[in-house]
Specification:
468 residues; alpha+beta; six-stranded mixed β-sheet; 21 strands; globular
Length: 468
């Protein structure tokens, strides 16, 4: 084990003054509970490469670059410098007051190659990802005894989804290198205004639920030992992902061959792998829910006659997500082929891949306000477990270069308090088609994966990351 010592804590605000104003959360933002999402970037000894020579950076210089460029970035990303407050209707709203971002400097008496990234509960939680004490964003820069650094960020999910956070991180790294911003964020809430009159398909009622209508789960049917959540980080090689895709695309009994993506194939394998490890003799449930996070930006853009709105949606800052899911009997998932499970995944995801789905979801939230609502897969009203997978395949890690090269390792960190599992696959730093997979699951689910699917999910090690 190692210790992390906080050296300094300060608040960094936007470098330019701004007029205090209110920014309403969109109807899609209102579907998110107050969750904190973390992300880390690990760098070897930072070196600035110039035409004349290479300069090893002192930690103080690194901090100055990051702090100064952060203050510049917050001018455009002013939402991250605000705070969430309740309005007169009791709903969360963003007060853009340039209250600033918590900025922490720290030192860890450990080398990068010694950190056990496979077990982030031990190595990352409470060490490299800061706890947000005020505002909507916190940042920690930690120096390691080997000279490497780790940049950790924590943001309020109600304000931004992963796509929005990526926009911010890329812009921050561009300004750190004194480059112009490749794109500015859009806070054009009118892009997500409800329609009048509103309309939504009944399928929305199957995916979302007003929180006041939830029926509390009876505590006595839950075994506390079965409710422990843990996090792990694995890698999956590119050839194994391709193999899963080939299995998912096998011809069915009618001779029809599917065209399933790598992400759909991976998700189907994970769903089936956990189900196959469940013992019906000792388990008290029959069904298993599995959801996929779908980004609605490209869906809302389709067939849009307003070109300015299309451009605005591509750089829209906020949440534009939906979580369709499927629910099947455990025994069915066990018995059916991977091809069959992949087709089930494709079918329920397909529901959310339309412009009308997202417009309907916006209208559905409007119809139920001011009552808060949530994704139904997170509601404990099923007789079985639930897992949600979010794709991080477009994570622009190679663009997040603060001037000293790309990160040697990166990962999201999302150990939330719910009992639904969360999985985020991302591209590997190797750039060879491998995936890094962050998992936050019930302990028994993780044990099943390590027992039955260890040939696919391998622990991230310093050796794999070429740190040794």
């Amino acid at each position: 084990m190692f210790n992390v010592k906080v050296i300094k804590t300060e608040v960094v605000a936007a470098v330019l003054p701004m007029q205090e104003h209110w920014l309403p959360l969109s109807n899609l933002d209102l579907l998110l509970p107050p969750l904190e999402v973390g992300v880390i970037f690990c760098y070897l000894n930072p070196i600035i490469i110039s035409e004349k020579n290479n300069i090893n950076l002192e930690f103080g210089s690194i901090v100055k670059i990051l702090r100064t460029s952060l203050a510049e970035t917050l001018v455009s990303y002013y939402a991250f410098s605000g705070q969430i407050v309740r309005n007169s209707a009791g709903e969360p709203e963003l007060l853009c007051n340039n209250g600033g971002v918590s900025f922490i400097e720290a030192f860890a008496n450990v080398e990068l190659k010694e950190i056990n990234f496979y077990n982030p509960d031990e190595s990352i939680e409470g060490k490299f990802v800061p706890k947000k004490k005020h505002g909507v964003l916190a940042i920690q820069v930690t120096q390691l005894k080997c000279g490497g650094i780790i940049v950790g960020c924590t943001f309020d999910h109600r304000v931004a989804d992963a796509y929005s956070a990526n926009l911010f991180l890329v812009s921050w790294s561009e300004l750190a290198q004194s480059k112009p911003l490749s794109q500015l964020p859009s806070f054009r809430r009118s892009s997500l205004f409800p329609r009048h009159p509103g309309y939504y398909d009944d399928s929305i009622n199957d995916l979302y639920i007003p929180i006041p209508t939830l029926i509390p789960t009876k505590p006595e049917i839950l075994n506390p030992n079965d409710q422990v959540m843990i996090s792990r980080i694995y890698y999956v090689t590119g050839d194994k992902i391709e193999h899963l895709q080939s299995l998912a695309n096998c011809r069915d009994q009618k001779g029809t061959k599917s065209q399933r993506s790598k992400f759909e194939s991976f998700s189907a394998f994970l769903w089936k792998a956990i189900a196959c490890g469940i013992n019906k003799e000792t388990s008290s449930f029959n069904n298993f829910r599995f959801g996929i996070v779908v980004d609605g930006r490209t869906r809302l853009i389709s067939n849009n006659v307003d070109d300015n709105q299309d451009k605005s949606l591509k750089r829209y800052f906020g949440n534009v997500l939906s979580i369709p899911f499927g629910e099947r009997k455990v025994e069915e998932l066990k018995e059916k082929s991977l091809n069959w499970v992949a087709n089930v995944v494709h079918e329920f995801v397909d529901i959310a891949k339309t412009q009308e789905h997202f417009l309907g979801l916006i209208d559905w939230v409007e119809a139920h306000r001011p009552d808060p609502s949530m994704a139904k897969i997170y509601a404990m009203d099923s007789d079985g477990p639930a897992v949600v997978v979010s794709s991080g395949q477009h994570f622009p890690a190679n663009k997040i270069n603060f001037g000293w090269g790309k990160a040697a390792f990166w990962s999201y960190h999302f150990p939330w308090d719910g009992k639904a599992g969360y999985v985020m696959p991302m591209p590997s730093p190797k750039g060879n088609g491998d995936w890094i997979v962050y998992m936050h699951l019930l302990k028994w689910q993780m044990e099943l994966i390590e027992t039955s699917a260890s040939h696919v999910f391998e622990p991230v090690t310093a050796n794999y990351l070429n740190l040794i």
